[in-house]
Amino acid sequence: MININDILETVNMIKQENLDIRTITMGISLLDCVSDDQKRLEEKIYDKITKSAKNLVSTANDLEATYGIPIINKRVSVTPISLVGACADVEDYVRLAQVLERAANEVGINFIGGFSALVQKGMTKGAKNLIESIPQALASTTKVCSSVNVASTKAGINMDAVARMGEIMKETAYLTRDNDSIGCAKLVVFSNIPEDNPFMAGAMHGMGENDTVINVGVSGPGVVASAIKREGFCDFSRLADVIKKTAFKITRVGQLIAYEASKRLDTPYGIIDLSLAPTPAVGDSVAHILENMGLEKCGTHGTTAALAMLNDAVKKGGVMASSHVGGLSGAFIPVSEDAGMISAVENGALSIEKLEAMTAVCSVGLDMIAVPGDTSASTLSGIIADEIAIGVINNKTTAVRLIPVYGKGVGEVVEFGGLLGYAPIMKLSDYSSEEFIKRGGRIPAPIHSLRN
Amino acid sequence: MKAVVTVIGKDSVGIIAEVSAECAKHKANIVDITQSVLKDYFAMIMLVEIDKMEADFAKFQKELALLGEKKNLDIRAMHEDIFNSMHRI
């Protein structure tokens, strides 16, 4: 029989430390839905999603019961809609978003991702129309998530797209102003977007994927934070070991669930995303992990080093536990979704500049950050450009999900509710980036993109 | 298939009897049982075979949880594979 202490450890992780499977995401290719007739396209998309994901939620619920581990989200990611609806005009795209919403409601999932465009080098007419439709699409749906890849290490940075995305964020914020600009929480701008990421808002089903696939995102910041606390004072070699072992255990659960879900749904297993994804719940914070390492408050000097070590140790532990690792895989640092981050911002310990530095060493980027509603589009584009440059130069994924909360300013708080949490509005630089953003064109790919 | 039943909480008279009775009611065969009591804190772990169970596993879990609520204990039944995969390479 399994060791009694091991059993109690697992039960304790679930009961006390918020261990859960954050998401089972089914990737669905919509390439076979392509049609030059908009109505036919809509029908085919709806049918493909509702048929493929019919049993996703019930299977996830069964797995949750059998293994006694909560599975928080059941989601679907689809082929970037700009590729499927390449002939559509702006209004057609809004309708496609609504079709995705209807399909999501029918199968009972929490979110559907893939209302996306890939414009790292240039923009097709379809991609351009999709981007133009984003504000209206996000304002008229609740479950649809949108992402736009504006750069890659291979292609450089499409600064025209960066400039336009600042404006799109502003418009989305305005159209969802009655709900604290929540539309922007479903919109993320990427560099080096992964094609198998199960996490929202950036999930999409890439071009080189199977027809359908199961990707699983694990979580467990609370488990890591508790393990560090239990270990007490030790040196960094020991600390890295503790994190690795914990990440291994967390990922093994994800692997088990992914394998079983894939079997029961008769859908190939894609990847495990071994991310530490915080929630606003007490004891489920990445910031608290960093604080348990000995920082008085997340954001103080030493935070970037702590996060770098955490991120690396999580990957090293996780990679051994799973046959295929992918997606974003690392520590997330969304401000509004992490009780420790919120508190650090409220206390003035964590600024947007420090967050930007932290994103250089962890997965994703400037995530769920509320900024003043009167921030200009060019300033938003400036923030996007900075963050995207970090990704392009460092050969990694970075992303920006900012919420310029309409009608609110620095010091005020915005409440999104649920997993999205709440956020104090952060101060930005008082100086303009307008002339810089206005230049347009492309920032060339870095020299190390020439690896052949 | 086997499941692990964990019972955690404050010690009191008759815990094993009641949990065993619940297992018997559902035709879950107990194959191993181990427990430890640390001060007033009680932890019991049962390995049960659930292949011959009449009702479904979810119902078994629910009734155990209900029993737990009544006795102020945390009672869970989980498939053994979650422990195997987490703690064995």
Walkthrough of the structure:
The complex is a heterodimer of chains A (452) and B (89). Chain A is globular, with a radius of gyration of 21 Å. Helix content of chain A is 44%, strand content 17%. Chain A is an alpha/beta fold and 452 residues long. In chain A, a hairpin with a 6-residue loop joins strand 11 (413-415) and strand 12 (422-424). In chain B, strand 2 and strand 3 (41-49) form a beta hairpin. Chain B has helices spanning 15-25, 57-71, 81-87; strands at 2-10, 29-38, 41-49, 73-79. Chain B is 37% helix and 39% strand. Chain B has a single domain (2-87), classed as ACT domain (Alpha-Beta Plaits, 2-Layer Sandwich), CATH 3.30.70. The two termini of chain B are 20 Å apart. The radius of gyration of chain B is 13 Å and the shape is globular. The model of chain B has no long low-confidence stretch (mean pLDDT 89). Chain B is of the alpha+beta class and 89 residues long. The A-B interface holds A 1-4, 6-11, 15, 62, 65-69, 249, 252-253, 255-256 and B 4, 6, 8, 32, 34, 36, 43, 45, 47, 57-58, 61, 74, 76-88.
Contiguous helical run count of chain B: 3
Distance between the termini of chain A: 53 Å
Portion in helices of chain B: 25-40%
Strand order of the largest sheet of chain B: 2-3-1-4
